[in-house]
Protein 1
Amino acid sequence: MICLKLSEENFEYDVRGLLTSFYPGTEIVLGDVEELLPGDRCLRVDYGETEIRVRLLTGTEEKEALASADTSDRKTAKSVLKRLVYGLLSEDTGKRLPWGTLTGIRPTKIPMAMLEEGTSEEAILSYMEETYLTGREKINLSIEIAKREREVLRNIDYGDGYSLYIGIPFCPTTCLYCSFTSYPISKWASRMEEYLEALFKEIDYTKKAFARKKLNTVYIGGGTPTTLTPDQLDRLLSKVEESFDFSYLQEWTVEAGRPDSVTEEKLRVLKAHPVSRISINPQTMKAETLRLIGRKHSPEQIEEAYAMARAAGLDNINMDLILGLPEETIEDVRFTMERLYAMAPESITVHSLAVKRAARLNTMKELYAHLKFENTGEMMDLTADYCRRLGLNPYYLYRQKNMAGNFENVGYAKPGREGIYNILIMEEKQTIAALGAGSTTKAVFPNGRIERCDNVKDVALYIEKIDEMIRRKKHLFGL
Ligand code: SF4
């Protein structure tokens, strides 16, 4: 247990983030405790007007760090405080965090903004090292990615352009770590027509509201869109095609994530429409892990789905992986990468397992307490190495809370095959109109202000309240 005591309610979120990274899984209690048991820690932060003092107490020891800072300037105060906390925790645990004091989800935003101001790479490196104590390897990675993102987004229209997301929140089974809006298709197949009808109403509204805007990317995700029947999938894609002007379209992705939902007929449907990119997601190629995480398909089904997609003529295939899955070792990761290397997809997205609150892995954690979940720098390096050998360059990166090993998610792609929508959703510079249950629309206004509006997650409620979902969008966009 760690108790955290702040003299003012400033930066609790940031300090908590560092505590969680240094002591993963340890309970954090706000305020004082009467007695520290062996292994417990207490972190105390005192703000003066011109200095910040941080103390770390164990039952027997006290360590202190102190620095001058103008605490009326929030940005400076936060930066100084995080460095002080980092120093004490690093000394206590003997660990260094690859990203240093950076706890946010988009570390590439920093080099991106600095590159846009014309700052040299040398200066960015020094700044990130000194300010955030980030390791050189991660700084270089984030600069490389920021440069590539700028290149990929160079033709995106932020003022007049927008992107479209359509969610199909159904899957063959629910994965252990899933925190997305996803329902078993077996329970909802009988109401799919009603779902599509509601979705089509949202499409009709969006078509009218955005008639004067330029559609840059379309992403159909979920869930697993290929849980739709071939006929339903065809009608959905036709509806999108008929409703929007594709003159400015740069990418149309459809997720075919679960190989147990993929058939030749559905792949032919995708190919019959101008879908430019699909995703077939193994997560791992180890059969035992697939069983443990509740994906009731075999590694061979992944290879079959991939081969079918190639035979259907789909020439931009992404594959998602997760590191830190239960009981997986570096040899298992090597085995997965060998099989992916043989398939040679155009892009690979490597995730570090992040257990969110709603995931079964969290809500039923006692059931899985005996399993080991570990991601290491070695595993990250191994996947990066295989991707480079496949000619795939890192092009987007984001971090999440509670990530195994405190690492990051990285997308690698062949030049020209990057997932543009993936970058857009991270960069938050373009409006994304999101349709379907559980989706979140993001409006980016000309002054950079961002506002969101959610659709309800519950499918029955979404169908029932579709007019209300549309009203929310009308209110947000004023259209
Ligand atoms: S395939 Fe994706 S959306 Fe579906 S249950 Fe698994 S993690 Fe969730």
Note: The domain at 2-90 is CATH 3.30.160 (Double Stranded RNA Binding Domain).
Protein 2
Amino acid sequence: MPEINYGRLLDEKLRELEKNGEKPSLLLHACCAPCSSHTLDFLNRRFEITLYFCNPNIAPEEEYDFRLSELKRLVQEMKLDVKIVEETYDPTSFTELAKGLEALPERGERCRKCIACRLKKAGEKAKELKCDYFTTTLTISPHKDCKFINECGAEISAECGVAYLFSDFKKHDGYKHSIELSRQYNLYRQNYCGCIYSKINSQKENK
Ligand code: SF4
């Protein structure tokens, strides 16, 4: 079967909304400020956005707090009329989910579970807040499996009844633009994905 071009699906959806003069509500799961920078810039004119910070994977807690504070600063400095909904930090839920998978490399089963758990929460939150769509900033990362993220989003959409906005935010030089915006806003760009296992891996690689 040919690969689905998720960037093109997003472009088609945006054209359709523009043609119909619609600006629907969107719950945008945000993993961090750098990944949110281009994504917000790209989507802000087309959607009423609520950012959803739900990342129990991030460790240690100071790192979690700092990534969240950077996201808040970004929204303020970009002068966006965007609300941020913070999920209660629950690192034990991630530790449970990652049990037995700690030593796996990135893009393996631990990451699939980590992404699926955050997307599920995003779908549920979108339903609770009566949003028209939900999606995640995660597809901007060249290190993440874009196909998996989108397939997972579609499955959760079928369960929660909220439309999933397919995406590949790397398209239109999105990743490059996120680096430029990170420089412009002097954002903290972490050198590991989020969990303690990715931090250990990154430290090993740096050695
Ligand atoms: S490496 Fe990233 S995606 Fe994978 S489990 Fe850790 S935090 Fe989640």
Note: Residues 109-128 form the longest helix (20 residues).
